[in-house]
Design brief:
Radius of gyration: 20 Å
CATH superfamily of one domain: Kelch-type beta propeller
Oligomer: single chain
Number of helices: 3
Shape: globular
Helix content: under 10%
Distance between the termini: 34 Å
Length: 358
């Protein structure tokens, strides 16, 4: 393991540097990416100095290369893009996902200000649940198409769910998992009505997941079975598919219940296996090792890195460090990360015992 990972990083200024209000720090935003570019979308802004929050009808992107009659240099660069009238970046705590093979990005629900206006953090004014679903098509650089639709009434909005693109059907499907309504972290305190709704509705987001067919643009509700997780928000997810495509397995890790912002975070790992939509709990963690608000990436077929997050608050350190490595095959956290040591993904025996197969 590298003793100081920052040695391999090369920081660069964004859109003119820290003095520009184009690039404040954002909390709970999303990134849409394909092989040529990415966009930073949504989130609660912490503006530099006293600068205003950027306009809600522009989005910041990064292009790996440039081309076209008006482009002078063939080199990477940052740039801002105007959005259509029905799309705004004034939204946060939604679920974002990318499908690079399809050149698509997706943003599911989240929170916004009551008037859909600007907001910053702190204080937190994005306290209204969004019933929206935003997509971006990045097939042609500099000719991206953005659109926001209203979710059907049977698909309930929520904060900090996970949405995972699965490579099945004509253009893949999205599976929206978990999240909670009115999470404690976005309010000074929950009133009795908010707490009751949270306890009543939020568990159903694990018991019945929302599925979106990208090709037909149709939403479905799908019941799940097995070791169903409790209500969770601010957890993370990765997808690992069997070599023969017989199962597509969504691993989720961490998070908290959304009822008490000062509660211990989960350290458990669950798998939602498709097409059976069966939950299997594959790792029982400890209170001291849990985390929320982190992100997970699958760096190799058998390895999931959980990056960042918090345990309870800033006074409680993350056990194991900022980055921990979970092996998707043997279902355990590794003592160290070695990029030369990895294997192909194999459906774990614990999962096969529940869903069948070899």
């Amino acid at each position: 393991m590298c003793s100081n990972f920052s040695n391999v990083l090369n920081p660069m200024s964004i859109a003119g540097g820290a003095g520009s209000n184009i690039d404040p720090t954002y909390i709970d935003g999303a990134m849409f990416a394909n092989d040529d570019e990415f966009y930073l979308y949504g989130g609660a802004a912490i503006p530099p100095s006293n600068d205003e929050v950027p306009s809600g009808n522009t989005v910041l992107g990064y292009e790996a290369y440039q081309y076209g009659a008006t482009i002078q240099d063939w080199e990477p660069m940052w740039w801002t893009e105007d959005l259509p009238d029905n799309v705004t970046t004034y939204i946060t705590n939604g679920a974002g996902a990318s499908a690079p093979s399809e050149n698509l990005g997706f943003y599911f629900s989240g929170m916004h200000a009551p008037d859909w206006g600007s907001f910053t953090y702190p204080p937190y004014l994005a306290n209204t649940t969004a019933d929206t679903f935003t997509t971006v098509n990045m097939s042609v650089m500099r000719s991206e198409t953005w659109d926001t639709d209203t979710l059907p009434s049977y698909i309930k909005g929520r904060a900090n769910a996970e949405i995972v693109w699965v490579p099945v059907s004509e253009a893949g499907v999205l599976v929206a998992i978990g999240g909670v309504v009115d999470p404690a972290g976005l309010f000074e305190s929950l009133n009795s009505s908010q707490e009751a709704l949270n306890k009543d509705l939020s568990p159903t987001f694990m018991e019945m997941v929302s599925v979106y067919d990208v090709n037909t643009k149709t939403w479905y509700l799908q019941n799940t079975t097995g070791d169903t997780p409790p209500q969770l928000t601010e957890f993370c997810s990765v997808l690992a598919s069997a070599a023969d495509g017989s199962s597509h397995n969504i691993y989720i890790y961490g998070g908290y219940n959304g009822l008490n912002a000062n509660s211990n975070s989960s350290d458990d790992v669950y798998i939602l296996s498709l097409p059976s939509f069966t939950w299997v709990k594959v790792y029982n963690g400890t209170n001291t090792h849990g985390r929320s608000g982190h992100r997970c990436i699958k760096v190799y077929p058998d390895q999931m890195l959980a990056i960042g997050g918090y345990r309870i608050d800033s006074t409680h350190c993350l056990e194991g460090g900022i980055i921990v490595d979970f092996n998707l095959n043997n279902l355990s956290f590794q003592d160290a990360y070695d990029p030369s040591q990895w294997s192909d993904y194999k459906v774990p025996d614990l999962l096969s015992a529940q869903i069948g197969g070899e």
